[in-house]
Amino acid sequence: MAKRVVIDPIPRIEGHLRIEVEVENGKVKDAWSSGTLFRGFEIILQGRDPRDAWFITQRICGVCPVSHGHTSTMSLENAFNVTPPDNARIVRNLIEGGQFVHSHILWFYHLNALDYVDVVSALQAKPKEKSLQEVQAKVKKFVESGQLGPFANGYWGHSEYKLPPDLNLLAVAHYLEALEMQKEASTIVAQLGGKMPMHMSTPPGGTTFIPTVEVMDNVIWRLKRLQHWVDTVFLPDVLAIAPYYIKYAGIGKGVGNYLSWGVFDDPSFDPKKRLLPRGAIFDGKLAVADVDGKEVKEYVDHSWYTAECGNRSPMEGKTEPKFTKMGDTKYTWLKAPRIKDHPMEVGALSRVLVAYVSGDPKVKSMVDGTLSALGQAGHPEVLLSVLGRIAARVLETKLVIDGMLDWTGELLANLKAGKTQMYAMNDVPEKGQGMGLWEAPRGALAHYNVIEGKKLKNYQCVVPTTWNASPRDHKGVRGPIEEALVGTPVLDPDKPLEVLRVVHSFDPCIACAVHIIHPVTNEVKAFRVV
Amino acid sequence: MLTKRGNGLSRRDFIRIAGGTLATLGMSGTLTPKLARALEKAAAGRPKVVWIHFASDTGCTESFIKSDHPSAGELVLDILSVDYHESIMAAAGKQADEVLAKAVAGKDYICVVEGGIPTVPGHGMIGGREMLDIAKEVCGNAKAVVAIGSCAVDGGVPAAKPNPSRILGVGEALGMKVVNLPCCPVNPEWLVGTVVHVLTMGKLPELDKQGRPLMFYGRKIHDNCPRRTHFDGGRFVEQFGSKEEAAGYCLYKVGCKGPEAWSECPKTRWNSKESWCIEIGSPCLGCSEDKWTDHFAPFYGKLANVALPYGDVTADQIGVGIAVATGAAIVGHAVVKASRGKSPDDTKK
Q: Which pTM was predicted?
């Protein structure tokens, strides 16, 4: 007898997501993912000064505003036909990197960990170290106060929690520490960008931030501290916890198609030479295919829009919101984006896989080392799972923080050599269009603009969670989260902890995902690849 | 490397937290023991908070967790009891609903609202219910409602023209008086400072007509800007990344909205006081103000109706670094008409 389970709200994500699953014989038989908030940013952008778009689109998401700001700026630079100076490339990488590191730390400890760490079990630990005894006393006092705050009504004691009490306690201690460390990473964004969230320094043409030795020294010091913490706390935590949940290397595979637009430019601005390069993987085959932004199509057969809005590429999109009711046919504000009719998973796993399969030596040695540490040497296919998504995000944190220290070196070398330009003059064209393809911590991000009469005629975003939390498409094919949920074992449908684990492995961000597209009548011209 | 934290919150911790708070509140150090006692008393039965998200992007939660004095961790785990907050809570689905229902039934909580309220049916739902209905219930049963960030105050960016989901601020949507803490996002130290003020003084800080605490929204950015002397001296940035920008010239000509923005940004700054918008050479967007997304667009456009000390003289015409001896500074302070009927020197701590 199948049982329908609705989880709404889903906690510890960004935004308003509803997950419905059908559980039969202890396993998920079918799943539906719904985005339940609609704001309509693309409509708001129409008719505005194009240079305002990079400020406005940051407000799509307060968790990854930097990525929206950068992608927007890139799409505008594409339309304005201006290339930022090398120093601006480096500063943007550093700002983006600060956000990635912050986001991944926050995700692992504060959004994801409570699915694996039983806070109440930490009370049974017998710590020898004074600092851990103090943390335990703090937890004890907290629990005895009867005011459990954010820890109230969790699934504590569920038999799927597998960590021994000492490890639970250690994780709780690091949960508190990670709150401080995510702040440090964000502060780097603020030092180069004014504030975080919603940085201010990267308009089309370059940056308004002008580096000084004082600020750069301060940034480097923070980076070294963060790097030390990632090396000595974050990576070891994941390697300590993973063996207890190794079965999740076989759970939550999903659609087996992976997309990365690529992120963190080198001096060539070639997307294939980015720190995490551009590419796509289809049908779980470990081979990288070329991909471009014009191949995206969106479908609305199961979304609250009129039928005419379906089967269109973003540049000729059309949208008329039409809410009916929450039903089996129409059940979400998210559209269903596809490439060549394939649903695509996006995020750290996709980026790391594309880099790994492309033969990037650093990524390859990191991934192989991790597989070996988990007793899975020679089996990269186990990465296509819940555990793989977790590992990929952590490895990416290490990759990015090391990259950031390299970039500070590049910037100082430029300044020493007298290369000080931060900004290239530019102007809004009478008419033009542009595309920016980049990555947010949560995955592939694309912005498209059309300018007429120096104003935005059209603006669209295809964002990470639209890919991941996509509904079924015109052919009835499920989106990545829906597909990953199918087959997931669920011990107790009233406490669907395992469902949360699968959903959280995608790090959903719903504010980003719900967006709409407006009609464009002019033809799509060829884009310069950005 | 492990957290060095005491058993709960010791008096020493309180003194330290209180010290940081004093700086935020602009109080003298002699109040420290009193403040510590007040916070300690509050912690004995931690005040309940229900923090709810409507049409938001979670940017204000992200901002809040950058708080220093106290930190978000200290506030959530030691000082307050944050009983509902979807971004951090363990409970999901029906277990989360139970938590919320219990809190609402108790009617003994402060409600923090992040995000505006969509009023088009179906455009904003949680647990299958309209956000507007949830707001009526959750805000209606609260002891006080604090709207944080532009979205909760007046709908914010997603309520900009043509406002596709007809999003309203909390006060307007519910027809009730709320404390408004605008800015995009809210500055964490102002949110925390407001909470600490209530715990310490047992009442809200003094508010302006728009429900904004005067201690954080009582002065204009322009009047406290480190670049102000350059405005008075007629020295302006004409291009980003230029030597004039590096020298700290005024950003008015590249779009700064500081002359019409009421906020303590120059003093509080952002992210552990490390920086703020104007420091890194960006014009202020005026995000503390009502309907700023429409009111101040285009953002790189020069603000109208700001009288310059010397008429429209450019930095080039004056020459870099040459001071001009006139009564300009006085003129500059007096010319800007306050948009809310205040005189420019109407500042209250």
A: 0.91
